[in-house]
Every structure is written in structure tokens, then in C-alpha cells.
Design a protein that fits this description.
CATH topology: Non-ribosomal Peptide Synthetase Peptidyl Carrier Protein, Chain A
Mean pLDDT: 80
CATH superfamily: Large-conductance mechanosensitive channel, MscL, domain 1
Helix content: over 70%
Number of helices: 5
Strand order of the largest sheet: 1-2
Low-confidence stretches: none
Distance between the termini: 70 Å
Structural class: mainly alpha
CATH architecture: Orthogonal Bundle
Order of helices and strands: HHEHEHH
Radius of gyration: 32 Å
Number of domains: 1
Number of strands: 2
CATH class: Mainly Alpha
Strand content: under 5%
């Protein structure tokens, strides 16, 4: 059973998936920073300087006016954090777009390499073994 598990883990697909998950986690941190540090302030600028991630509605509980989302959650109030949800959608769209661009580039490179292989001129085929033997036979008969 242990050897079967080692064979399963050693397969290329499992290793590729593990690498993909690790890179995906690192990529998520980069996109989260991109959205939180660069895109969110731009959106806030167009919304009149409002910090977009702190947009929420209090469903129940007492929250000080103008408190951040984190402060509202710390008080134990039930909040409808629509700003965080919208940021999650923006994160998803950015990640999906970047993955789309990566897949498109990889497919373009793959298609280009396939086209080069197809366009490569075939080397002229040499004579077959039967043809060589026939030539040798004919040469021996002539001598």
C-alpha cells in the first residue's frame, strides 16, 4: 500500500498539481495586494474618497458611526459587508483574466511550435532495404 502511495505521489500529474497549488497561493497574495493597494484606492477615488473595503450595513447591534468593518465585527454586530464581497469579485475577475492571458500565451507558444514541426521539410527518404538488396543483386549479376 505504501509503494502504491509513493507511485501515486511520484506521478507527474500530482506533482504538477502540487506546484500549481503553491504558485496559486502565492499568486493570490500578489493579486490581493494589487487590488487592496492599487485598484481599491483608484475605485475609492472615483467614489469620492470612500474606502471601498469598509462599506457595510449594520444588520443588528450597536456600531459607532464611521467605524471600520473590522471594528464593527469586533463589537459583535451583525454586518452586511458588501464592500468586501465586491472586492472578492474584483479579485476573482483579475485572477481569471490573468489566468486567461497565461493560458492564451501558452496555447500560442504551443501552436507556434506545432506549426514549426509541421512546416519542417521532410528529409528525402533513402532507399528501402529491399531496394538496396535488389541493387546489390543486380550488381552481382552484372559482374
Amino acid at each position: 500500500m505504501l509503494s502504491e502511495f509513493k507511485d501515486f505521489i511520484a506521478k507527474g500529474n500530482v506533482m504538477d498539481m502540487a506546484v500549481g497549488i503553491i504558485i496559486g497561493a502565492a499568486f493570490t497574495a500578489i493579486v490581493t495586494s494589487l487590488v487592496g493597494d492599487l485598484i481599491n484606492p483608484i475605485i475609492g477615488l472615483f467614489m469620492g474618497g470612500v474606502d471601498f473595503t469598509n462599506n457595510y450595513a449594520v444588520l443588528s447591534g450597536d456600531v459607532a458611526e464611521g467605524a471600520s468593518l473590522e471594528a464593527a465585527r469586533e463589537t459583535g454586530a451583525s454586518v452586511f459587508a458588501y464592500g468586501s464581497f465586491i472586492m472578492a469579485i474584483i479579485n476573482f475577475l483579475i485572477i481569471a483574466f490573468v489566468v486567461f492571458m497565461l493560458v492564451k500565451y501558452v496555447n500560442k507558444v504551443k501552436d507556434a511550435s506545432t506549426a514549426e514541426e509541421e512546416a519542417a521539410p521532410e528529409e528525402p527518404a533513402g532507399p528501402t532495404a529491399e531496394e538496396l538488396l535488389a541493387e546489390i543483386r543486380d550488381a552481382l549479376k552484372a559482374s
